[in-house]
Specification:
Order of helices and strands: HHHHHHHHHHHH
Largest sheet: none
Radius of gyration: 29 Å
Number of domains: 2
Helix content: over 70%
CATH class of the largest domain: Mainly Alpha
CATH superfamily of the largest domain: MetI-like
Structural class: mainly alpha
């Protein structure tokens, strides 16, 4: 009698042991795969950081050779004359500032339209698709486009064409950032403002933009960092100028073009200036990225 009663009890016990063994094997396999993937991630991170450190060290070692006050106070002079990069630095600052001033309002308004006025519409989807394509388009294509619409019809290269090319690069970055930041605002806040009787445009400008201001500013700073080092679109638009020039109707100097030209020259002092210019622009872009992250992480008031 006891044998017949114990048989059903033994069967579940054996099944439980088998399940425990299977679970143990699966656990070991999962831990092994987790450790393997983690090892691959660590190796990839070390390789990427190693390349980055190597590039930065090379840039610093080669760039500090010609770094000095004359880089910022002297214009480009003939080889052997100990010239500087003042004209190229000032030209880059002017073109980046004007390009950002043109592209930021357009990107802000387009991003606001996508986030607030076009939800679920075919027009909004088409605009977003075009913006995404423009965001990933090679900058040289943008330079060729501006070359066809501004350089060829007006008969020459100019700083204005370079500013327009940089503005086109700025626009999709600001569009994406503005749309993402506005979509993070809860709908209850929008409903509360409209429920008080405010029109939608006032809700967007007084509440939406203010709540997303830090994120939008971060996008603008990232756009500035992106266009500050662009060379290809400027080669087809502003062309570059080794002399002092602040007339945007003529070929205009810029730091990326100066680096490109000097690096390919046979003169040692110009090659040293190219390394120094690359160091200057790298430090500037790094500072902008740090500022963007600091603004993004700043506590909300």
């Amino acid at each position: 009698m006891s044998t017949t009663m114990d048989a059903p009890n033994r069967q579940p016990s054996s099944v439980g042991k088998r399940d425990a063994a299977v679970a143990l094997r699966l656990g070991k396999r999962r831990r092994m795969m987790d450790q393997l993937v983690r090892l691959f991630c660590i190796i990839a991170t070390v390789i990427a950081v190693g390349f980055l450190i190597s590039i930065l060290l090379t840039l610093i070692i080669r760039g500090v050779e010609a770094l000095g006050p004359r880089v910022f106070t002297e214009i480009t002079l003939p080889p052997g004359s100990n010239g500087g990069l003042q004209n190229a630095i000032v030209g880059s600052l002017i073109q980046v500032a004007i390009g950002t001033a043109i592209g930021t309002p357009i990107g802000l308004l387009v991003g606001t339209y996508l986030a607030e006025y076009s939800r679920g519409s075919a027009m909004g989807g088409a605009v977003r698709f075009v913006s995404d394509i423009l965001l990933s388009a090679p900058s040289i294509l943008i330079g060729l486009f501006v070359y066809q619409i501004l350089v060829v019809p007006f008969g020459g290269f100019s700083g204005w064409a370079g500013c327009v090319a940089l503005a086109i690069i700025v626009i999709p970055i600001v569009v994406r950032t503005t749309e993402d930041m506005l979509r993070l605002i809860p709908d209850t806040l929008r409903e509360a403002v409209i429920g008080l009787g405010s029109p939608k445009w006032k809700m967007v400008t007084m509440v939406g933009w203010r709540a997303a201001a830090s994120g939008i500013l971060t996008g603008v700073l990232l756009a500035v960092a992106r266009v500050a080092g662009e060379t290809a679109p400027l080669l087809f638009t502003s062309l570059g100028n080794n002399g002092w020039n602040i007339n945007l109707a003529n070929p205009f100097p810029s730091l990326p073009i100066a680096i490109y030209s000097f690096a390919a020259s046979p003169y040692e002092d110009w090659i040293s200036l190219a390394w120094t210019g690359a160091l200057v622009i790298t430090v500037g872009v790094l500072a902008l990225n740090i500022c963007a992250r600091a603004v993004l992480r700043a506590p909300k008031q």
